[in-house]
Write a sequence for this structure.
């Protein structure tokens, strides 16, 4: 199965929807044969990961742990779907805090499912090498790709929150 979803929270109701969202997203990216691990955790778990792996001692909404090798900072470094040996490409892991997502959904005026889809989209783009923290140009590229994919997800019947351009 290309998407492995691990719900470590007490609210597994969102797992089926998020799994379908992940599969749609991989399809829209032309990577339906790729593997992706998604974990839904609480603020305590993501706080620990954020501290241990990014040196930021606070909870966050989404973390990405890419498995693709980045080549000269370029996005989309691996061929879609499989490696040269034919094995599925493992894109990496996306970890989402359901507690932070719920707060952001409330303040954004959309549903938790829409926010989880937005965070998954954001996390998967990070797995593919997109980055919004290095400079304004790369941030604009990532924001445009997020907007494009969110619109395609919505058109396919998968609600997804969209941030307005800043």
């Amino acid at each position: 199965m290309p998407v492995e979803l691990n719900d470590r929270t007490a609210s597994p109701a969102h797992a089926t929807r998020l799994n379908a969202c992940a599969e749609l997203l991989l399809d829209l990216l032309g990577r339906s044969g790729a593997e992706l691990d998604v974990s839904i955790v609480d603020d305590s778990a993501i706080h620990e990961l954020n501290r241990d792996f990014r040196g930021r001692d606070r909870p966050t909404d989404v973390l990405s742990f890419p498995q693709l090798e980045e080549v000269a900072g370029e996005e989309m470094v691996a061929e879609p779907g499989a490696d040269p040996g034919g094995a599925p490409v493992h894109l990496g892991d996306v970890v989402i805090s359901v507690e932070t997502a719920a707060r952001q959904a409330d303040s954004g005026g959309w549903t938790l499912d829409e926010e989880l889809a937005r965070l998954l989209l954001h996390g998967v783009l990070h797995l593919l090498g997109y980055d919004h923290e290095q400079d304004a140009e790369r941030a604009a590229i990532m924001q445009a790709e997020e907007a494009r994919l969110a619109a395609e997800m919505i058109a396919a019947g998968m609600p997804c929150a969209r941030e307005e351009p800043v």
